[in-house]
Design a protein that fits this description.
Length: 181
């Protein structure tokens, strides 16, 4: 969803990366603006994606990547049998609770990367067929990857939201601004 990240808002490379990540998070957050939980869990296309599911997925993925970078075990373990659960609300989960969870993940992400000496700090990538053995990446890569992941799903959210009620990203930006006064 469209946002403008003014240059003066960030000041340096780390600030810019965090500002662009937050701008993409904002697109996903706005996608559920004014919707009920029932509306946000609808799947109006051939895809299995819902707005609530996208938000939950992106929050879990961000948390997982930061835990990987910190070389900590993942708080939420997913495998091929449970991967689909990252795309749907379960039990007493709501859009509000999922957004609150994501806000906490975002806070921890920023706290972690701001405490680093620089963005060249590296961490080992998880073992996976798509990564070379013993691969490492920088924190800069991590932030760019989170921006990419969030932006990809913000685009999905645009299509889903427009399919639900015809509201476009531009309409939702205007509604959010009006609500903020």
């Amino acid at each position: 969803m469209p946002t403008h990240v003014p240059a003066e808002a960030h000041g340096d490379e780390l600030g810019a990366l965090l500002a662009f990540l937050e701008a993409q998070r904002g697109g996903l957050r706005r996608s559920v603006l004014g919707l009920t939980d029932e509306q946000a869990t609808r799947k109006p296309s051939a895809s299995e994606l819902s707005l609530a599911g996208l938000i939950k997925h992106v929050a879990e993925v961000e948390q997982g990547w930061v835990e990987t970078a910190q070389e900590k075990p993942h708080s939420i373990e997913r495998d091929m049998d449970t991967w689909h659960l990252s795309f749907q609300l379960e039990g007493d989960e709501t859009v509000a609770s999922t957004l609150a969870f994501w806000d906490e993940v975002a806070r921890k992400t920023e706290e972690f990367v701001r405490a680093l000496p620089d963005l060249n700090v590296t961490f080992p990538l998880p073992e996976a067929p798509w990564y070379p053995p013993n691969a490492v990446q920088s924190m800069r890569w991590l932030l760019l990857h989170l921006i990419e992941e969030t932006a990809r799903h913000a685009g999905h959210a645009d299509v889903i939201r427009e399919s639900l009620d015809g509201k476009t990203a531009f309409t939702l930006v205007d509604e959010e601004r009006a609500a903020q006064g």
